[in-house]
Amino acid sequence: MDGHQFDTFARALASGTTRRRLFGGLGGGLAGGVLALRGRSWVAAQEEEDDDNNDNDNGNGNGNGNGNGNGTGQGPACREEGHPCEGNQECCEGLVCEPSGPGAADRCTRPQAECEGGCPKPDATLVAARTFRIDADCSYDEDAGETTCSCAAAPEGDDAGTIAAVRLPTTALSAEVIGGEVEFACEDDGRSAYVSSSAQFTVVLSGNVTVGTNTTWWCETDGGLVPAFGPILVASTEDDISDSAGALVVYAGACGTTPADPDAFDWYSQCTAAATGQSCTLDGGEGTATTKQTNRGGQVRYRQLQTGAYRLTLDGDDWCHAECDNLNENGEIVVEAGRRTHVWAFTCGGS
Q1: How many angstroms separate the Cα of 287 from the Cα of each of 52, 114, 283, 300?
Q2: Per-residue pLDDT tens digits for 312-347
């Protein structure tokens, strides 16, 4: 600083000029050095101390262009929401510096408001669901002792989607499925169903089955799995027994091969396949013999039988084992009023 600059500096101090005007009069070299060292704090000092708003000096100086300490001269001293706040950078009022956003870098973030007693959950939005309907037309064959239900699924709206398959939950059934265009499937969560491969299919059930009230079936669509309105398939109350008559039910299972030790063989767990189309003749004496064939579930039912002793003949050479839950001392099947007698018979197709 030469003598002339020193005199200018002294007069400025004596006249009480503002710091802003003072630095502006010292020339580019000194002013530029102060701004480079002070940085953001100079801007804060300027806002606090420069109360001379009526003079004609705009405080531009001749150092870094606008003289506000950040080169361009327009940004605030604090960091706005979403801006990085690493090192000594300070967030603006109401913001905190904490990890947020991509990469979990430190950014100026508005803190979450604390709720007394826990924050309430947002209201759920109720929207219209895609709706489907399954219709079932069931026909009972008394001679075969089975019911065939023809089922068809269809969307109830134009934009519901295309049906690829239908799931009939076992909870919608009160009768045994013995056939039809369905396959049994069990989900990982324990839910089980009979699944079709198209929107139209048949399901065959044992006994006399009728259509009941609505329950939930499921449709597999191009937009995912959706619920559908479908009927409960209800087994009708059997009228095969009464106060004066009984019934005989035959279950026929296929074992495939003859066991090496029949006495030690587990017939009921090893011979679970149904022996279908097998002829069974029940003879109660006095010309009352009746022949029936096992249905797709391997069953035959003789209804409204008079009480007494009966003999059952299983036609064919493949029968290898049979058991009954009500036999007399002569090995005859006993039929009692108001009760069902059961026979479990097994075929062994090879040796």
Answers
A1: 130, 90, 8, 20
A2: 999 888 899 999 999 999 999 999 999 999 999 999
